[in-house]
Amino acid sequence: MLTVKINGKEVEVPQGTTILDAAKEAGVHIPVLCHDSRLNPFGACRVCLVEQVGMPKLQAACTTPVTDKMELITESEKLSRVRKTAIELLLINHPLDCPVCDKGGECTLQDLTYEVGVTKVRFDAVPNDTPVDHTNPFIERDIDRCVLCGRCVRICDEVVNIQAISFLNRGTDTQIGTSFDQPWNCEYCGQCISVCPVGSLNNRVYLFKNRPWNLESEKTVCGLCSCGCTVSIDYEGNEVFRMNEMPEEGVNHGYMCAKGRFGFDFMNSVKRETEAQITVGGEAKKASVTEAVEYASEKLKAMNTDSVAIVVSPRITNEEAFLAKKLADAIGTKNIFSTETDAIMPGATYEDVENSDAVAVLNINVTESNPILGLAVRVAARKEGSSLITFYPSETALKRVTTKFVTGNPVELAADMEKFCAAFAGAENEFTADAKRLLDAENPVVVFDAYNMADAYIAQEIQKACSKVKLVPAKAKNNSAGVVDMGFGVNAPEDFAKGVETGKFKAVISFGENIAVRTGWSKLTGALSKLELLMVTDPFMSDTAKLANVYVPVATFAEKSGSFTNLEGRVQLVSKAVDKGVVSDAEIISGLAKGLGTELPTDAYAVRKLIEKEVKLYADVQWDGGTVAYPSVFKTELAKVATTAAGSGKFYLYPASLRLHSGSYTRWSPDLAKVYGAPVLDVSVEDAKEMGLNKDDKVKLKGDGFTGEFVVEINKQVTKGCISLPEDFVETADIFSNGRYLKAEIIK
Amino acid sequence: MAENEVIETEEQQEFDPTMCDEICAKYQDWPGATIPVLQETQDAYGYLFPELVERIADDMNMSPHQIYGVITFYAQFYTKPRGKYIIRVCRGTACHVQGSGRISEIVKEEFGIGDGETTADVKFTLEEVSCIGACGMSPVIMINNSTYGNLKPEDARKIFKDYASLPDEG
Questions:
Q1: How far does Cα A465 stand from its chain's mean position?
Q2: DSSP A399-436
Q3: Would you state the pLDDT for residue B1?
Q4: Element (H or E) spanning A148, and its range?
Q5: From residue A539, how far is each of A271, A315, A664 by CA, in Å?
Q6: Which of A13-17, A87-91, A205-209, A660-664 has the lowest mean pLDDT?
Q7: Domains (ranges, CATH) in chain A?
Q8: CB under 8 Å to B70, separation ≥6 — which residues?
Q9: B76 in contact with A at a CB cutoff of 8 Å?
Q10: pLDDT attached to residue B170
């Protein structure tokens, strides 16, 4: 330990601590501009200069490590002059357009100007007037406001590993930009916006809509995928203005993805329904929620209990799922379903992944499907001496940090993964060295797609051969794990399809699930519309809601309280930020139960108390961030699944993940839909050339049992002979209902 | 998605990436090889054009934007075509006093190019440099690796004319 004296106060800090961190320890504030504790020290802005006793030169607090017996002064006449000048110099080129700048009110430069007391501009410089860059659909870039602190470049390099922007030129010509001034294309995670200390990078979804001091914030958990990010919902009245990061908070450390940061606007959508609807004899009539619920419960009363099925979406809260289970009990039916099953449950936390020294990613584009898990994998892979092996049909964003990237068509890839798995048991093949790296590692981690049973089998076998391997099944939705815990994972999704198709089910109640676009269920639309009762709750008139006799609009995750269980099995609280004048699923469930003569609570806290009593896994769970202790990842031993591609055709077709969408929910976001509105067929450069395809060509896709028409995108990362389509779109759900390993033909 | 798009620029041209791939392969497991790779590819292709930079980025598993950052940092990397003959006119103090400004003007008169510009036939590029370390023979110019000193304006014009009349081949 080193002893350091800061402003006369002594503190003990470990070797390697910077002056800035030591000062924090001593409770001393040092102003900073270019510093971010999540990034490597940089020392560009000279705002954090401090005096060291016995040293003639000033030291940058953010980059200088302390030495023993160091004596520092952070406040002096000289320092305030130096700091003031540093800010004055930054203000030479920075336009003083604060009244029209979106950052006004939460701008670090503005705050520092106030803090150091700059009241007039001593220097006379001609301000630049560069046009604002709008090439990025989500990020506005005004390079005139840039102070070159480099935080955006550094976070894109050190955290996201995309390096979509860089410092260009040199000296006074330096600016942040892209190669050859190309349009700014990236992952759209917006991490750069979150660290920009000035108004140089702005969120285009929020741009010019409000001022930060008008906004109230509610800390909650994002409900757009299974990552479980702590975010702040910034709102005024009942309008959500942005979903913002909470710096360094939560499992996401204050990072977010495109969906969370730019996709929240669906909550404010004018396309949201406000009135319930009852459809009798093909004629839709508006109704009050009470009428709709009464109508449905009357119908339910007259039904044979075994002919009722309840489906929940993995988007609803734990509390609502629990109540839905109670409703099923009240009805007396065991037909409860969700797209999730209890076959695979969470096995490791982000911390396990971040601390891992050898990671294998099996056939999942994790930075797209679960962006924050993707960041954790990158943390692990970047560490000195650690390794990452990635299997995926095409190259992915992980390539920059991957030790070995294995691509190939899905069938070859499955064979390669089998070889990799065999290498754990001692087989000699091209993956022996890679398997050995995991076997020798202290904390090996395997990430796989929780919905691909062939990959899950490989993961299971790897764990068998190497018991210290921690498994991370990447689940899809915000409460994929929770709805299973509440009882909705016991029945296979296929049984629901069977029940509907055979006419066994006469009534289906779907809480939030958009059955019509789910892989495996999408072909049920015909049968669903013939049901005696199809009750659907959804914030929007979804494809399934259109078929319903009874539709009730419900709240999104910003409008209700409850809890979600994320892909780590971590339970986190969701709090209500706004009220859009619609009820929550909980209220509808207890309304239905009341109609059937059972009283159920709707208050989230009361329901949690019931859950603690009745759900064993949640008996002592800490609702505000505790993890559920699952006995094992796999409920029963998985059997080997054949991975031969079905059908005939020239191309291997596989389902791809999209970072801009998760399921059908985010498609209601006007901003996300603008960038990616309809499924696009990704084709490799070689195949496009061979077939004479151009970007945006419309082609027909034909396989065994499916056809479709799609727009072509030529993607240089796609492997020759492979094509991919996103899952969970109305247009593609039918295709992937035929399986994950398909062959298809492109017809021009 | 968008960032994987094949970028098509106006100057898109079919180029043979073989040399680039060979150079990059040589430096594959060499950390910090960006600069030697850029130097060699520039030597091989003449200048660093967008498709080449993309190719280097793919080969080296790097971001093209980062590479472009390096390219624009150093004065010795070029993103525009350069002439077959690089005329370096020294504009250091000694040469300046001896009238090197007039030599730059003559280049402009003969070829119509200013500092940093290249003739349309990609034969000549003018570079005004600070000092080439031959003050004793000022004013001095260099054309590729040949040095010409103690120049009177009309000597310089003759040298330029000689170069201009050289056949394209060889």
A1: 32
A2: GGG-SEEE---HHHHHHHHHHHHHHHTT--STTHHHHH
A3: 47
A4: none
A5: 9, 12, 12
A6: A660-664
A7: 2-75 (3.10.20.740), 124-268 (3.30.70.20), 293-341+481-557+577-603 (3.40.50.740), 350-474 (3.40.228.10), 651-747 (2.40.40.20)
A8: B34, B35, B38, B77
A9: no
A10: 47
Pairing of the two strands A444-449 and A358-362: parallel
Rounded Cα distance between B57 and B24, Å, is: 9
Write down the number of H helices and E strands in chain A. 22, 32
Neighbours of B30 (CB within 10 A): 11
Q: What domains, with CATH codes, occur in chain B?
A: 15-73 (no CATH), 85-165 (3.40.30.10)
pLDDT digits (tens, 9 = 90+) for B94-145: 999 999 999 999 999 999 999 989 999 889 999 999 898 999 998 999 999 8
Per-residue DSSP letters for A166-215? EEES-GGG-EEE-GGG----S----HHHHH-SSTTEEETTTTTT--GGG-
In the predicted structure, residue B47 carries a pLDDT above the cut 70: yes
Exposure of B126 by Cβ count < 10 A (0-12 exposed, 13-18 middle, 19+ buried)?
buried
Q: How confident is the model at residue A123 (pLDDT cuts 50, 70, 90)?
A: confident
> Is the link from the previous residue into B139 a cis peptide, with omega within 30 of 0?
yes
Mutation site, A160, A166, A169, interface B, largest B CB count within 10 A: A166
A580: left (phi over 0), alpha (psi -120 to 50) or beta: alpha
CB-closest option in A166, A170, A714 to B68? A166
Chain-chain contact of B69 with A715 (C-beta, under 8 angstroms): no
The single-letter code of the amino acid at A654 is: Y
Determine the average pLDDT of the residues in A154-161: 95
Q: At what angle do helices B34-45 and B18-26 cross, to 10 degrees?
A: 150
- Prediction pTM value: 0.92
The complex's ipTM?
0.90
Q: Is residue B65 within 8 angstroms of chain A, CB to CB?
A: yes
